[in-house]
Amino acid sequence: MTMPLQFDKSAYLKILRDAGVPPDLAEAHADAIESGLTQPIVLPADLAVLKADMLARMDELRADMLDQMGELRAALLAKMDELKADMQARMDELRADMQAWMDDFRADMQAKVDELRADMQAWMDELRADMQVRMDELRADMQARMDELKADIQAWMDELRADMQAKMDELKADMHARMDELRAELFAKMDEKFAGVDARLARLNVLVAASVVMGAIAIALNCVILMRL
Known about the structure:
- With 229 residues, the chain is mainly α.
- It contains three helices and no strands.
- The longest helix has 185 residues.
């Protein structure tokens, strides 16, 4: 139930005019308040009725929403099962296609690998044959160079041996000459030394002989003295 509020417009205008508010502004202000206060207002009983109605409507709406959500859930589950079955069929089909593609790819790759292996084997055989030819040529060239170097070294060694032999013969001859010269010089010095030694030996022999004679004379004198005694 609603009821309007009581408003004394004349008294309110008097208060505003006494307060110094211009008449036009006071009139407009009083009209606005009167218009607002004359509108119906809601009482607590009306609010209770409104609340009960709102709760009933909310319960009805909740039940309706639950029914719709159940139906939607069932529809979604059915759609999900259908989608799952469709996805499974598509996955199986895709798996089969992928397996077939993988088998084809594996067979193609195996063929290419076999072809590449054959090409590589042929290339390796050709390279091995070419390397063998080159190695034989290099070995023959190296052998020729080694024989040439060996001949050069042999010639150089023979030349060096001959030169060394000549130098050795020359050195031997020079050493013999030096030895002969040294021997002659040594013999001359030895003869000179031996000549002095011979003179000394002769002098020594004279002294020894004189000593022997003097000893004999002494012995003889001793004998004569003993005989006189």
